[in-house]
What we know:
There is one protein chain. The radius of gyration is 19 Å and the shape is globular. Helix 3 (73-84) runs parallel beside helix 4. It has a five-stranded parallel beta sheet with strand order 2-1-3-6-7, with helices on both faces. A two-stranded antiparallel ribbon has the order 4-5. It has a two-stranded antiparallel sheet with strand order 8-9. The protein has helices spanning 11-17, 33-47, 73-84, 114-132, 150-167, 212-229, 235-248, and strands at residues 25-30, 54-59, 88-92, 101-102, 108-109, 138-142, 173-176, 183-184, 187-188, 191-193, 199-201. Residues 1-6 have low confidence and may be disordered. The chain has seven helices and eleven strands.
Amino acid sequence: MPLQQVEQPNVELAELKQQQKPLNRFLLVGDSIMYAFGVEFRNAAKKSDFKFDEIKVDFKISTGLNRVDFFDWYARTTQLVSKYNPDGVVVLFGGNDDQDILDKNGKYRAELTPEWKSAYQERVERYAKLLNESSVEKVYWIGHPISNKPRYRKFISIFNEIYQEVADTYPKIEFVDNWDTFALNGNFNPIVANNSGKKGRVRTKDGYHFTHHGARILADNLIEKMNDDGVLQKQAELETSKKISSLDK
């Protein structure tokens, strides 16, 4: 069975995706790859000109959207959203999802088969629907950069395709394409410069996890995208707004 075909986003959906108010309370969730990313997102946020009231990072090693029998991210995310009441969520999965899967009917599906892709997409659809129907205002679903490991490169290209297709169907969800961030002329580039021009290795030896340098590049890119989307408010603008408000009283 081929990947489910989804309709191209229409103008109305595109308009719904436009964020109307600033976000400053963020929840970051994912597998072990989220650890370095979460640390560096916090560091980048502290050094930025933008207002971040709270950043919560919740990661669990060896988990994902595949083995829901091992760890239930649907229930966990519902608990976290209820507990922290974030207005923005950042999602990063896939690191442990490159394995056989049991579909929603409990039927075994071998990895990389059309049935496997369909079953995994159903998992992603269910998670996206959960977030889209929650109190969260905006979701950034992080796409994986290219890897130097053929196996991972094959899987993450499929994951990215699914994440993109699903995100396109939900107003609150934005897919962040990072494939070329670690690439040079279409091939994996192990050493990449950050925004300040400092170069460093971007992945660990396993070909999947990010180094802190690589994670910082992705975190800076996400904050830049958030700014472009209009979901962040600069501290200086906030202070000016407060002064004007006090004068009006």
